[in-house]
Amino acid sequence: MKSEFKARPVYLKRDDRIEAHFTTCFISLLIYRILEKKLDEKFTCSQIVNELRNMDMLEIPCEGYIPTYTRTDFTDTIHDAFGFRTDYQIIPSSTMKNIFRTSKS
Asked: How far apart are CA 34 and CA 3, in angstroms?
């Protein structure tokens, strides 16, 4: 997993920075594990990270967002797990804001 998250050696001395680094790493691992469970453990860590990195959207001012990624089993599974689609149409800005708001709660 360390290589999937592109971690590198970190040399910290101050306690607050060590604690912040640990917290960041822990949260990353926690998010990955939650996502893995939501996807019924169908995908490996490298598949999840690579597929999420490839899920780009192009913003068109005053229109919304267009997906620039290719639809795959992973994208279908993640859309089904979280109850929204972003892979086959222009997503209005208001809908994208709702997706962001929902994903934060």
From this structure: 19
pLDDT at 81 over 80: yes
What span, in angstroms and rounded, lies between the C-alpha atoms of 21 and 27?
Answer: 10
pLDDT tens digits for 50-66?
A: 898 899 989 888 888 89
Question: 86 with 65: CB under 8 angstroms?
Answer: yes
Q: Is the pTM for the entire model greater than 0.70?
A: no
Domain ranges within the chain, ordered by starting residue: 15-104
Buried b (16+ CB within 10 A) or exposed e, 58-89: eeeeeebbebeeeeeebbebbeeeeebbbbee
